[in-house]
């Protein structure tokens, strides 16, 4: 199918899901949600492969920059969407208006993906000689999952999934009853702002200083957020009762969790791009990432639902420590640049070379 058409197919599922929300049909929404889950995984894997190729074409020197820039643009959607949600809620208007706006924006994005091919110049010199079958792709993901570097990376992947599930599932339930619906949008906005800002900064920091500042920062913000959350857990022994209807602590928590998410995201994406053999193994690494991430979200949204929020906060704090300690201890496993640029004649040589065609296979 190729990267472009795989991403086009994935974008259709997002448009269909957005359109299903306004129908009010629960069964249709659930079906669309299942389909968009597949589309999201397909989009995630292929954007990761694309970014890894883009970084390889510059010899790996700008991998952090490209990754950061991509996620800055991606996360800016959360800022725009939540600002619109706040405006609509404050004005007393229906959220359906925003959903239809999202539908239109998604449709335009799908059409642009078809008629504009910004990835062509990046991957034209690395077109695959053959495409892996579905069975081969599954086998490739399983083989990647057994590698030591994947086991080192797994706690970070798991923590990112747990963090996202907590942010959009449990944190809104902690907000004071008198805060109103707009409070949720404000918390999400703070989350999106720090995501957007640090997506870009993290890429620059990684290119200049390496992985250590990013690991140290997600440990600091993650544990600090856990500490504040522990003081705000509904209980007679915490600050929950004294806080009343104020939402400022939750806004701050949202900002901290946004930094935690985007920093983990940066580290994981860079590891998948740089630590695995180019081609099908890189695609399989992003597939492994998606499987682990979604498994964590499933566990936290379904299995962990009966547990009190305090236990969830403690659970997440344990995973933050585990992810940070393992990453620091085995960082060399995740930083080895496997994508070697070779000098070629033509435009790619000026960009630092490109991977040879025989090393690339499509993961679609």
Automatic annotation (TrEMBL):
<feature type="transmembrane region" description="Helical">
    <location>
        <begin position="183"/>
        <end position="201"/>
    </location>
</feature>
<keyword id="KW-1133">Transmembrane helix</keyword>
<dbReference type="InterPro" id="IPR036259">
    <property type="entry name" value="MFS_trans_sf"/>
</dbReference>
<keyword id="KW-0472">Membrane</keyword>
<feature type="transmembrane region" description="Helical">
    <location>
        <begin position="309"/>
        <end position="327"/>
    </location>
</feature>
<protein>
    <recommendedName>
        <fullName>UNC93-like protein MFSD11</fullName>
    </recommendedName>
</protein>
<keyword id="KW-0812">Transmembrane</keyword>
<feature type="transmembrane region" description="Helical">
    <location>
        <begin position="95"/>
        <end position="116"/>
    </location>
</feature>
<feature type="transmembrane region" description="Helical">
    <location>
        <begin position="250"/>
        <end position="272"/>
    </location>
</feature>
<keyword id="KW-0325">Glycoprotein</keyword>
<feature type="transmembrane region" description="Helical">
    <location>
        <begin position="5"/>
        <end position="22"/>
    </location>
</feature>
<feature type="transmembrane region" description="Helical">
    <location>
        <begin position="284"/>
        <end position="303"/>
    </location>
</feature>
<dbReference type="InterPro" id="IPR010291">
    <property type="entry name" value="Ion_channel_UNC-93"/>
</dbReference>
<feature type="transmembrane region" description="Helical">
    <location>
        <begin position="213"/>
        <end position="230"/>
    </location>
</feature>
<dbReference type="Pfam" id="PF05978">
    <property type="entry name" value="UNC-93"/>
</dbReference>
<feature type="transmembrane region" description="Helical">
    <location>
        <begin position="28"/>
        <end position="45"/>
    </location>
</feature>
<feature type="transmembrane region" description="Helical">
    <location>
        <begin position="65"/>
        <end position="89"/>
    </location>
</feature>
<dbReference type="InterPro" id="IPR051617">
    <property type="entry name" value="UNC-93-like_regulator"/>
</dbReference>
<dbReference type="GO" id="GO:0016020">
    <property type="term" value="C:membrane"/>
</dbReference>
């Amino acid at each position: 199918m190729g990267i472009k058409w795989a991403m086009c197919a994935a974008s259709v599922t997002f448009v269909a899901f957005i359109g299903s929300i306004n129908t009010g049909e629960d069964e249709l929404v659930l079906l669309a949600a299942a389909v968009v889950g597949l589309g999201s995984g397909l989009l995630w894997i292929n954007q990761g492969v694309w970014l890894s190729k883009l970084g390889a074409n510059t010899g790996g020197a700008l991998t952090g920059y490209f990754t950061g820039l991509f996620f800055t643009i991606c996360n800016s959607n959360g800022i725009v969407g939540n600002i619109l949600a706040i405006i609509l809620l404050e004005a007393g208007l229906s959220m359906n208006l925003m959903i239809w706006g999202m539908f239109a924006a998604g449709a335009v994005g799908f059409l642009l993906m078809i008629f504009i091919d910004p990835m062509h110049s990046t991957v034209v010199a690395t077109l695959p000689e053959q495409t892996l079958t579905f069975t081969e792709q599954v086998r490739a993901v399983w083989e990647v999952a057994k590698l030591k570097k994947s086991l080192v990376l797994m706690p970070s992947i798991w923590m990112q999934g747990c963090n996202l599930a907590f942010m959009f599932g449990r944190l809104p339930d902690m907000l004071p009853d008198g805060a109103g619906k707009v409070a949720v949008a404000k918390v999400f906005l703070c989350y999106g702002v720090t995501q957007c800002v640090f997506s870009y900064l993290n890429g620059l920091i990684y290119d200049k200083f390496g992985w250590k500042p990013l690991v140290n920062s997600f440990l600091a913000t993650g544990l600090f957020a856990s500490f504040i959350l522990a003081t705000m857990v509904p209980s007679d022994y915490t600050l929950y009762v004294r806080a009343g209807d104020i939402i400022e602590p939750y806004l701050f928590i949202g900002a901290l969790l946004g930094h935690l998410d985007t920093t983990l995201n940066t580290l994981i994406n860079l590891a998948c791009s740089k630590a695995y053999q180019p081609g099908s193994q890189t695609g399989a690494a992003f597939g492994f990432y998606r499987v682990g991430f979604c498994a964590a979200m499933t566990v936290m949204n379904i299995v962990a639902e009966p547990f009190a929020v305090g236990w969830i906060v403690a659970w997440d704090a344990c995973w933050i420590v585990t992810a940070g300690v393992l990453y620091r201890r085995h960082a060399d496993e995740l930083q080895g640049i496997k994508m070697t640029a070779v000098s070629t004649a033509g435009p790619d040589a000026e960009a630092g070379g490109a991977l040879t065609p025989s090393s690339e296979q499509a993961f679609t």
